[in-house]
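Intended use. Records like the one below are meant for learning the mapping from a protein sequence to its folded structure. Do not use them to infer anything beyond what is encoded.
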Amino acid sequence: MQLLDGKATSEQIKAEIADQVALIKASGGKVPHLAAILVGNDGASETYVNSKVLDCAQVGFESTLIRLEASVSEAELLARIDQLNKDPQIDGFIVQVPLPRHIDEIKVTLAIDPAKDVDGFSPTNVGKMTLGLPTFISATPNGVMELLRRYKVDTAGKHCVVVGRSNIVGTPMALLMSRNTNPGNATVTLVHSRTQNIAQICRSADILIVAIGRPHFLTADMVKEGAVVIDVGITRVPDDSRASGFRLAGDVDFEAVKHKCSFITPVPGGVGPMTRASLLQNTLKAQLLRAR
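Structure written out for the chain above:
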């Protein structure tokens, strides 16, 4: 079993980005600038956005964090998005989800300029990804692909089972793994909550990508010997033995499954850091495209 170390790999990517930023600065170019809008005070979102701010500082990006009260109106949020769309200093920005129930996430996604949509959620960018055109690919699926690429995991001709069909992870993941690319060229089965015989289908997989949001959903009896297991899930599970009051759990029962795998990602330290690194890659790409 080999660990797919997202933490170490993301540090390598950030070092590469920092080198590119240094060259941009040396040539008198504009430093990439990432903005984030955080609505309310969700603990997980707060941690994630603060990590992004630290990542920006590490690679030499400029960053802006806009905090809005949970009571902010949808119209006010859309107005802030419009300001960022028009701000020439902002190369890319994200609106952290989840959002309060009174705000329509689809409206928010549609309001973001596709040229600044470094989360890769807009229909324009999703459509380009589907057609295999250059675009911003959603940070988590892109992070998984980068991890497979850098560890030289063989995916061509393999049976890949994606567990979960979200627009953010599962669906784009299935598309990317089926494309004529490396990594890619896999035969993909996408399973979800209505799929019959999920365990049986998972046991047939050479590559399992699990993004269903249920702690320890994938157990050892669902994994065949030698499979590659990518755990996208991360859930805060109550744990009174810890000062924080919780621990982070993935969708995979790591301790039970790891002995059967050729490659496996840990939680934390697997896909999470790669998601953040991919967001930086997309922001750099946005700045370079705008500079043309």
